[in-house]
Amino acid sequence: MDEGFLFPSGSAAPGPVPKGYIKVYSMRFCLFAQRARLVLKAKGIKHEIINVHLADKPEWYLIKNPFGIVLTLETPLDEGYPEKQLLPSSPFAKAKNDAGVFFQSRIGYFYRISSGRKNGQDVSGLEAELKEKLSKLNEDLVKKKIKFFGGDSITMFDYMMWPWFERLEVFELQHCLDGTPEMKMWTERMLEDPAVKATIHSVDAHKAFFKSFVDGKPDYDYGL
Ligand SMILES: N[C@@H](CCC(=O)N[C@@H](CS)C(=O)NCC(=O)O)C(=O)O
């Protein structure tokens, strides 16, 4: 039960989730929603995806989530599913990772660079700032001699960062990794991960969706 079709306004609210599943209100190209889908896949948690039409939101969704945005989840993660821990157990390491996740979620460079380029602005300053952030991440991997951001195996932190890196080529920013070889290797390792493989879209699919979005007619079902 991995992909649901789109639920636009006027659609009936989805029925109850079968026992043992959790519900994920998503949009196929949303990187925030992808973060959760990565974690669910990685932990092998059975889930039902409900793809919400964000340009024509169903009334029932606004009751579930008054902000009308995705993602909405209905079940706790590590707390309820202890089989595969994706968070470090020490509270200090956990807090540190949470801070990193928060920091990552605030990187608006991709969209700012892309729209700046489109408007003919000089985006070299923004690109330099992004490279600086990437070199800090690179340094972290080198100094700690680790393969992933939480250690030698993949953790929540890697999954929280991944959706941006999946889209580097889409935003024509892959050259920003040229000076950060460890980060490049990290992206290669991430591409081997089963949860990443299960949620990834091709560069062409991302581009096609992004174009439809920019044109004002987002094709949320692209590729289905
Ligand atoms: N801060 C939120 C952002 C979520 C978000 O912006 N989701 C977008 C899709 S990628 C959305 O639902 N947009 C619909 C809207 O803004 O009306 C998060 O980190 O989860």
TrEMBL record:
Q: Which UniProt keywords apply?
A: Oxidoreductase, Transferase
Which chemical reaction does it catalyze?
Answer: RX + glutathione = an S-substituted glutathione + a halide anion + H(+); L-dehydroascorbate + 2 glutathione = glutathione disulfide + L-ascorbate; methylarsonate + 2 glutathione + H(+) = methylarsonous acid + glutathione disulfide + H2O
A molecular function GO annotation? glutathione transferase activity
Instruction: State the coiled-coil residue ranges.
Output: none
Q: Which GO terms describe its biological process?
A: glutathione metabolic process
PROSITE patterns reported in the protein's UniProt record: GST_CTER (PS50405), GST_NTER (PS50404)
* Location of the GST N-terminal domain: 20-120
**Gene3D superfamilies given in the database record:** 1.20.1050.10, Glutaredoxin
GST C-terminal domain: residues covered: 90-222
Q: Could you state one GO cellular component term attached to this entry? A: cytoplasm
Enzyme Commission no: 1.20.4.2, 1.8.5.1, 2.5.1.18
Q: Which Pfam families match?
A: GST_C (PF00043), GST_N_3 (PF13417)
Job of this protein: Exhibits glutathione-dependent thiol transferase activity. Has high dehydroascorbate reductase activity and may contribute to the recycling of ascorbic acid. Participates in the biotransformation of inorganic arsenic and reduces monomethylarsonic acid (MMA).
The family assignment reads: Belongs to the GST superfamily. Omega family.
What is the protein name for this chain?
Glutathione S-transferase omega
What is the species of this protein?
Maylandia zebra
